[in-house]
Amino acid sequence: MSSTQYDQRPGLAPQAPSSRGRESQEMIPGPVIELERVSVCLGGRSILQEVSFSISPGEFIAVLGPNGAGKSTLLKVLLGLVRPSAGSVRLFGQAPRRGNQLIGYAPQHRTLEGALSLRARDLVGFGLDGHRWGPGWFVSGGRRRQATIEEALAEVDARQLADMPVAHLSGGEQQRLLIAQALLSQPRLLLLDEPLSNLDISHEQEIIALIARLCRTRGMTVLLVSHDVNPLLPVIDRVLYLARGHAAIGKPEQVITSATLSALYGAPVEVVEALGRLFVVGVDI
Amino acid sequence: MINLLSYPFIQNAFLAGTCIAIVAAVTGYFLLLRGLTFAGHALPNIGFAGAAGAVLLGLDPLLGLLAFTIGAAIGIGLLGRNLRERDLAIGILMTFALALGLLFLSLYSGYAERVYSILFGTILGISRLDVLLSFGISLLILGSILLLFRPLLFSSFDPEIAEARGVPVRLLAVVFLMLVALAIAIAVQIVGALLVFTLLVGPAATAGRLALRPGAVILLAIVLGLLYTWLGILLAILSGTIPVSFFIAFLSFIVYLPARLIAPRWQRRQQQPGSRPVASEGLSQQASAR
Question: Cβ–Cβ of A130/B288 closer than 8 Å?
Fold first, then answer.
């Protein structure tokens, strides 16, 4: 038996998150992401089955679910790296494609190869022009490029790290750099895959506050994959819960309930409140 | 010294050696970044089999070298990113090629010196035409790398994000390895299949320990590569009997050793205080989540 646990903070104000994102809603009409009966098969295995949902501009969404539920695969579908076997995916009204400048992406934490000879500013700079042909910075690595990079670093409170070797930075610091890198293409949608894994509690809080601030000030839509909704409850608008290839989307208090999760898992699941927290308990979760 | 440089064969050695040192250092840097050093070891050995086959057929060994190294490069480039599986496949491919090389040698009844020169190089015995060929191919390789520089660097460090940003990661991997194959083909002519690895990986490995940013690592690798090659040629000429490739490998080793030992301390000093990695990350969170 395994269990996934969520705790609910007493101070959660449900109406607070919905009051923002208005401005950006006017700028881009219609949903940012729209999935209609999307199915994905990878290597003959069905990952997602007829998943439908839509996400509005400026929303902060937590993507939850057990391991192997297809959370990372969903992000790859949005990035145009995985093609769905059925259904339609629309991003800003268009089909997904690789290299979409409107999307910023930070994948799951891994050790970067040979990272010892890379400074934070070099890593962040990839977000600016890493995809462009030509020698670039060692011909025109001018002051303006560095200023842009430092601006991005400042936006994630990491300006003091600019000249540090990436390999010497902690998980939280590296996470900041990846976010800064993703911001450099001025994305309207930020996809973050497990940005909170490998972080201790205080760094976790800092990263969440940072992402929430970016979401609000930039009017940017954020999809954040996490195995734990607890620390996110005060800042998110809705949760997208994936299990057994199916999805449920809604406000946390609507989705993380015994009835919804039992229907999603297709097995009895109990949401229990104990010690001021919500625990999701069930067989084979 | 100046007298020595007036001999055409010594001029040729210096010119070709210069081309190869630069090209090997630059491609070697990316090989290191991409975790492809084993491929850098395997490709010359595979090339040796091709050269032996060409000698057997009475062709220019360079043709066999190119055919085998480029063919293998495409294969390795398509193997994908899983490091352990990839190196296993490269190893099996390499030993198969070496077996072929052995077969070709046993079938070949001619003068063994041509095969010996493929293994150990003949930098002091190359023609002006060889120099021009090395120069031309070096220009082609360096020009290509300049053109591919940013996406190649990006995808070497972080293929996942690079792919999401629209960099053709697979194609770059294959094209890059073809450039490495070209570099190896001209280098084998001069330093030999067994010691190409020294020039390919030695300078970049040492530079990677000492410099902190990609541009600086590449420049330092080029400087080291040129130093090893020039000094190697000079020492070989002065010694009379000891081959150039021995000195190049020797210099590469004795410079790498102290760099390896000193670098960690030196790099730690570059760090500013107050930004140590957190040792106990994730512990408290794991406890509450499971």
Answer: no
DSSP A75-135: HHHHTTSS--SEEEEEETTB---TT-TTEEEE-S--PPTTGGG-BHHHHHHHHHHTTSSS-
Under an 8 A CB cutoff, do A135 and B157 touch?
no
Q: Could you give the number of structural domains in chain B?
A: 1
Q: Which helix (H) or strand (E) holds A41?
A: strand A33-42
Mean of pLDDT over chain B? 86
Nearest-neighbour CA in chain A from B194: distance (Å):
25
- Residue B251 lies in domain: 2-289
**pLDDT for position A161:** 94
Asked if B278 lies within 8 A of A171 by C-beta distance, the reply is yes
What is d(CA A283, CA A89) in angstroms, rounded to the nearest whole number? 33
Question: Which one of B278, B283, B290 makes the best mutation probe of the A interface by having the most chain A beta carbons within 10 Å?
Answer: B278
Residue type, A68: G
Q: How far apart are CA B263 and CA B209, in angstroms?
A: 6
Q: Which stretches of chain A score pLDDT less than 50?
A: 1-26, 139
Between B117 and B146, residue with greater pLDDT: B146
How high is the ipTM of this complex? 0.85
* CATH code of B25's domain: 1.10.3470.10
DSSP state of B165: T
CB contact under 8 A, B164 and A197: no
The per-residue pLDDT for A138 is 57
Would you tell me which residues 139-168 of chain A have a C-beta closer than 8 angstroms to some C-beta of chain B?
A: 141, 160-161, 163-165, 168
Give me the mean pLDDT over the B141-165 stretch: 94
Give the length of chain A: 285
